[in-house]
TrEMBL record, chain A:
UniProt xrefs under InterPro entries: Cyt_b/b6_N (IPR005797), Cytb/b6-like_sf (IPR027387), Di-haem_cyt_TM (IPR016174)
SUPFAM superfamilies given in the database record: Transmembrane di-heme cytochromes
Keywords: Cell membrane, Electron transport, Heme, Iron, Membrane, Metal-binding, Respiratory chain, Translocase, Transmembrane, Transmembrane helix, Transport
Name of the protein described by the UniProt record: Cytochrome bc1 complex cytochrome b subunit
Annotated EC: 7.1.1.8
Biased composition (Basic and acidic residues): 527-543
Membrane-spanning residues: 41-67, 113-132, 144-164, 210-233, 264-283, 335-356, 376-395, 415-433
BP-aspect Gene Ontology terms: respiratory electron transport chain
Organism: Micromonospora arborensis
UniProtKB/TrEMBL annotation, chain B:
UniProt-annotated binding residues for heme c 2: 171, 174-175
Transmembrane segments: 31-49, 256-275
Catalytic activity: a quinol + 2 Fe(III)-[cytochrome c](out) = a quinone + 2 Fe(II)-[cytochrome c](out) + 2 H(+)(out)
Protein name: Cytochrome bc1 complex cytochrome c subunit
CC per GO annotation: plasma membrane
Length: 543, 278
């Protein structure tokens, strides 16, 4: 009997043929693998959020294996001596066991928490990129709305997770959340008692938050993220303007192999950074906060950074209580305005911004090319204003820590926050607007007069002038060169960008694309053949 | 009642009648004699009842207290006044604050005060331990007050777990969960507990310095105080931080700072690097 030959090299191909025979996936897969993505570092910010979400899912599953979502009282007998013999909830005891008695539990818990902070931070940074470059414009308004919702759902995910360990910090946060719910007029007390199953804290809030935190909210996040990515596929990614790039095409790299490989590598980097932070930096030492007791509130009890702006708005809010003399009297507590009304307005404004801007500019067109922030000064300035507003509130959320560590009066911090909240955003608007105009002006100046060469020429009458290298050929203009139109894209401002001083394209911050072969990435001017230039000399010899 | 009134009326009547019967010279002489007698009576009574000038300046001080008084009269008298009675608008009276208060304020360098401000800061102490004891003895002998028990190690019998619970209930509101301190209103603050010695913590609980409430032996029994000191000294100070660098134990605010300064910065650089590799 002849032995059958086994050709190892042909196996993958055969297997692929076998799969395609059965499922007919070759055509759609080819389309997918050949999909082109534009390449720019700022397009990777959203991926940080995506990848940290993956890390959140992985570490979160590990934590659920050991966490016990119950408020039954137990007496701690684990290996952390300073809490031995202390009565506490089963949830807190299992969180302590996770930290001290489960192998690798503490690093997993810390990675989970750092990944959560990173997830929210990356969402915000990604959102800023999308905002300042105008990537939210038609046809991508839906994705902007989904992105904003992802922030708020992530906010909920973070808050419910913050509440699970049932240490002093999470209980204090939960107490504040219940107070916020209670402050809602008319429905407040019903909302609170239905969520807590009666009076705070009740006996079921931990198990309810647990199911929200591990099933409902992650499910919602996965759904929103899938639609978010699906829409990016369907609507195609935006790109920076540049040679060969139009509103109707996408210039970049194919999904496979390079883009996929780079993304895989980037995932490893994100995972690595989270793992390093989880191993090197302590986060939320629950064992120091102790079990939650209603009478224990530590100083410096703050929420995680993405909730801190609400803490700040509460601290800045004057104690304006509204008494409505209806029936037995009705009170709207001051807490209602900074913690319910303000986030409500922020959600509305942030999700509706694309429509507001389009309406204001009467812009009905589809835009696939990005804009540089300086070219839309009003939007950039509005964004700066929003960032300033958020920053003042966030800093005010930590104003007791700042006051203590920098030895400033806490009262002064509160008033600085109140005044700053009103003054800093308009100042940020004005300064940003002027900066944008100034940057534009400089670009226009280079287009009109050329690049500064650094060569100073002394004229016969004794004056000194700097020699400028014009960017366009002469067309009989008074200066001896033509004027270039402003198109809202990078203008070369150094001689080596013109190829005058050897290759300037290599480098850490910019793609090492070869200009002739591949379209130019942002940050790069189109490099053409060296233009004919007059010789630059001392000026004396030719006269 | 009525008989008194009658007698007084009779006396007044006699006084009104008599002078007319005497000569002017005798009246003057009699007045002078009565005046001198009254003055001598008043002066004599004063000399008998008033404390002597010597006794006022030198209460019965022990040797250490006398040394303390000498130090006090050089370094503290400006604000706390003669005999530690306080100076309005400058320094409070120290009568009755006890040796515990002096020990806390002087051994932690808070007194003598560098300047008048919201609250005194810890600084290197000006006085030696010996001098501090003398000052404390002086104030103690002036008006009594709480005293820290002897010995440098006041937590050897302390139960760390019980102390932790007491610390979280009584101390963490101001000194924060890690004992790093926290802000109070108008520039006042709860200081960090990390440089504090056993005796200073004990003295602070007894005397309630500055904005701290007094935790007398009725509120926290001496063994509970030992528990708290044990928790501070053995858990908060000598704890190897599980899970890495503790970011100053300032709670979530420094964690938020870290995720941007370390996490986001590192990953933005990574994305620049990856996007650059085409």
């Amino acid at each position: 009997m002849k032995r059958r030959k086994f050709d190892l090299a042909a196996t993958p191909g055969k297997a692929a043929v076998g799969v395609d025979d059965r499922f007919q996936v070759a055509t759609p897969l080819r389309k997918l693998l050949n999909k082109v993505f534009p390449d720019h570092w700022s397009f990777l910010l959203g991926e940080i959020a995506l990848f940290s979400f993956v890390v959140l899912l992985l570490t979160g599953v590990f934590l659920t294996l050991f966490y016990e979502p119950a408020m039954t009282e137990v007496v701690y007998d684990g290996s952390y001596a300073p809490l031995q013999g202390t009565p506490m909830s089963a949830a807190y005891a299992s969180s302590l066991d996770l930290s001290f008695d489960v192998r690798g539990g503490l690093v997993m818990r810390q990675m989970h928490h750092w990944a959560a902070l990173l997830f929210m931070a990356a969402i915000v940074v990604h959102m800023l990129r999308v905002f300042f470059t105008g990537a939210f414009r038609k046809p991508r308004e839906t994705n902007w709305i989904i992105g904003s919702l992802l922030f708020w759902v992530g906010f909920l995910a973070g808050f419910t997770g913050y509440g699970l360990p049932d240490d002093g910090l999470s209980g204090t946060g939960l107490r504040i959340a219940s107070a916020i719910m209670l402050s809602i007029p008319v429905i407040g007390s019903w909302v609170t008692s239905s969520i807590f199953g009666g009076e705070f804290p009740g006996v079921m809030i931990i198990s309810r938050m647990f199911i929200a935190h591990v099933l409902l909210i992650p499910g919602l996040l996965v759904a929103l993220i899938s639609v978010h990515l699906g829409l990016v596929f369907k609507q195609k990614h935006t790109q920076w303007p540049g040679p060969g790039r139009t509103n109707g095409n996408v210039v970049g790299e194919r999904m496979f192999p390079r883009y996929a490989l780079k993304q895989g590598g980037f995932f490893m980097v994100v995972f690595g950074v989270i793992a390093l932070m989880g191993g090197l930096f302590q986060i939320n030492p629950i064992w120091l906060f102790g079990p939650y007791e209603a009478w224990v509130v530590s100083a410096a009890s703050q929420p995680d950074w993405y909730v801190m702006f609400l803490d700040g708005s509460t601290r800045l809010m004057p104690a304006w209580e509204i008494n409505i003399p209806l029936g037995d009297g009705y009170v709207i507590p001051p807490l209602f305005w900074p913690t319910v009304v303000l986030p409500g307005i922020l959600v509305g404004l942030s999700t509706m911004y694309p429509f507001l801007e389009a309406r204001h500019l009467k812009d009905r067109k589809s835009h696939n090319l990005l804009q540089r922030p300086r070219d839309v000064p009003a939007r950039t300035a509005v964004g700066a204003m929003a960032v300033a507003f958020y920053l003042v509130l966030t800093l005010s959320g930590a104003n007791d820590v700042i006051a203590d560590k920098f030895q400033i009066s806490l009262n002064a911090m509160t008033w600085a926050g109140r005044i700053g909240l009103l003054l800093v955003p308009p100042i940020a608007y004005y300064v940003t607007y002027r900066l944008c105009l100034g940057l534009q002006q400089h670009d226009r100046e280079v287009l009109a007069h050329g690049v500064e060469t650094g060569i100073i020429r002394r004229l016969p009458d004794g004056r000194f002038v700097e020699v400028h290298q014009p960017l366009s050929a002469s067309n009989g203009h008074a200066d001896g060169h033509g004027e270039l139109e402003y198109v809202g894209w990078v203008v070369p401002k150094k001689m080596n960008r013109l190829g005058a001083l050897g290759p300037a394209i290599r480098g850490f911050f910019y793609p090492i694309e070869k200009p002739v072969e591949a379209p130019v990435s942002p940050g790069h001017p189109p490099v053409e053949a060296r233009p004919e230039r007059e010789e630059i000399g001392s000026g004396e010899s030719r006269r | 009642m009525t008989s008194d009134n009658d007698r007084r009326r009779g006396l007044l009547a006699r006084l009104r009648e008599r002078p007319a019967a005497r000569s002017r010279g005798r009246r003057r002489l009699g007045a002078a004699v009565r005046l001198i007698a009254a003055l001598m009576l008043a002066g004599g009574a004063y000399t008998v009842f008033a404390p002597g000038a010597q006794a006022q300046d030198n209460p019965q001080l022990t040797g250490a207290a006398a040394e303390g008084k000498a130090l006090f009269d050089v370094s503290c008298v400006t604000c706390h006044g003669r005999n530690a009675q306080g100076v309005e608008g400058r320094g409070p009276s120290l009568i009755g604050v006890g040796a515990a208060s002096v020990e806390f304020q002087v051994s932690s360098g808070r007194m003598p005060l560098a300047r008048q401000e919201a609250q005194a800061h810890r600084k290197p102490p000006v006085f030696t331990d010996e001098q501090t004891r003398q000052l404390a003895q002086y104030i103690q002998e002036l008006g009594g007050g709480p005293v820290v028990p002897g010995g440098d190690d006041l937590h050897e019998d302390g139960n760390v777990a019980a102390g932790g619970e007491l610390f979280r209930i009584n101390c963490s509101q101001c000194h924060a969960f890690g004992g790093g301190g926290g802000a109070l209103s108008s520039g006042k603050f709860a200081p960090s507990l990390h440089p504090a010695t056993d005796r200073q913590i004990y003295a602070a609980m007894l005397s309630g310095p500055q904005n701290m409430p007094v935790f007398g032996d009725n509120q926290l029994r001496p063994e509970q105080k030992a528990d708290i000191i044990a928790y501070i000294q053995e858990t908060l100070k000598h704890n190897q931080d599980q899970g890495g660098f503790n970011l100053g134990r300032y709670g979530p605010s420094t964690e938020g700072l870290a995720i941007f300064l370390i996490g986001i910065v590192a990953l933005v650089f990574a994305s620049l690097w990856i996007a650059g590799k085409s």
